[in-house]
Amino acid sequence: xxxGKTTVCQKLKNVLDNSVFLDxxxxxxxxxxxxxxxxxxxxxxxxxxxxxxxxRCSVFxxxxxxxxxxxxxxxxxxxxxxxxxxxxxxxxxxxxxxEALKKRLNGDIERQLRTPDIIxxxxxxxxxxxxxxxxxxxxxxxxxxxxxxxxxxxxxxxx
Length: 159
Hints:
There is one protein chain. It contains 6 helices and 4 strands; from the N terminus they run αβαβαβααβα. Helix 1 (5-15) packs across helix 6 (144-155) and helix 4 runs antiparallel to helix 5 (118-125). It starts with a helix and ends with a helix. The chain has helices spanning 5-15, 37-56, 72-80, 98-110, 118-125, 144-155; strands at 19-23, 62-66, 92-95, 135-138. By secondary structure, it is mainly alpha-helical. The longest helix has 20 residues, at 37-56. It has a two-stranded parallel sheet with strand order 1-2. Strands 3-4 form a two-stranded parallel ribbon. Helix 2 links the parallel strand 1 (19-23) and strand 2 (62-66).
């Protein structure tokens, strides 16, 4: 939370041809925000339904999906529900230093985009990313354009 997933993915969508982007947070957009077994299952089912529809659509060559996935079982659960028979997948984690994360989140708090409790919750998750079977990209001191170029290079795509 706060590393710039959505911003990077929006830019990546505009750089890669025939691309579509799903931000998993869109499936959590509810008030009041409620996290329980029922809502977790519903959100995951909605994400997988949308991603499978994107996969079946011949128009898309690149499907970009982001969500806070700090545990391998979250990634595995989603991937297991997708029809990936004709797909190549790449799992990438955007990570940053605790200092960079605090700075980014404090900026969001000042703009009233997030509440102060986000800092502790986000910092607690940082160590989990080292345990994931993903390509890690440190975004601490990089521009969005630099990060997008790095993703493109690491995934073997061309612009």
